[in-house]
Amino acid sequence: MTPPLITIPNELQVSIFCMLPDLDDALNLSRACNTLSAIFRNHRKHVERRIITSSSVYENDLSVTKFLEAYGEVADAYSKRGERLRKEDRLNPAVFKECLNVDWWHYPVTDEEVDGIAARWRKSRLLRELYLDERVAQEFVDFRNEFVSSSVAEDRFTIIKPGVTVSRRTSSGHLQNQPRGLDFKQRFHHALCMNTIAVASHQLAKACSENLTLEDGELVDANPDWDVYQAVTDYWTRSRWYLRGIAGDLDFYMKADNLEVFDFLYIFLLHKILPFEKFAAWTEADAVHWSEEGGFEVDEEDDAPYGIQKWHTFLSDCRKSFQPLDLVDLIKGKAWAADAAYPPDKSMYLRVRGVFDGGESESVDWCSFYERAPIVYPLCLMEGGSFNLENTELPCWWDRVRLECGSPFVEGFAEKFDMEIGKMVELEKQQGAKKSGLT
Known about the structure:
This is F-box domain-containing protein. It is a single chain. This protein has 19 helices and six strands. The protein is mainly alpha-helical.
């Protein structure tokens, strides 16, 4: 007969904790009884380190940590200097490359880094629970339905009601009962990491100086570091990942996970957190000198459509500058409320995230490319060729297929997706044949 868990030696109990897939499982096991609670409490640091450094759930977190550490210095400079950094405050692109060259398996992870990863995991739990919450999930589905059917671009982002309600069901863990795979938490967390690095790498690249090279013993301006530009583009499209400086392609379903989380965070939640009604409150302090690339001023006498277009520009800047955990802070601070005091200094909040800095480079546009369409485009490409469905405008082919197939995280998505794509490809063939006069 197998002995009860609480009767085996403490060393074995600790080892069992260390072999759990993620930190939530360790916490849940510790709540089983007083004995296990005491074991976890006394060995928590050791258990968290072992789980974080051995579980595949956290295999992307060290890269996230390195980008966030590097950007922390930039954020401090923004808070002191204003909208744009001085040349001497900008980072050497070598810092960016150091982030790309991190080797998780051979890197001595510090206690502070372990604590930071554990803290991010706990903080990001709210986003995962919101995604699974029945009420929020249904609103997300309703939004997608209206988003796809709306023919007026200005209407597509006004169909979302302001505010994010964290219900008791969400916070207590009683989440919607959909047949999601056992790897849901891991996949969702990986997608959060990718979306975090997509924003952090963009922020960091803008803050880098242009390369300088020696020619005949004198410093001369050179082209921007195109390796950095390529890496940021790969991260933004959520299509490639870097390990030891080498890029590796993500498979189709990883890309689909990344786009799903991007849509949930930045097309759905962000519009609830920063609704049109709060637009003026966020921009009035910087109306005269908004980002040079965005180039708009807030005018209370503007008619509604023009104002909404400016709001779209504001949200686009926020998508490039707000990391996923920023959304958690804004949700907890109820930033959408009429009397919202969070963040107390909205201008500074935007400034330290680099919203007003278009970068030093004159040959790289760090603004116009970094939208949703480049994230959708890699989904057009699969092994053996292309779907020939390259329209990435809103709403695009992906939005219609997603409407039919449901969430990529739900079991059976792959089979449904293949069927829908087969239908779309066949329909395009028939339409092409008709145009050619063959039928």
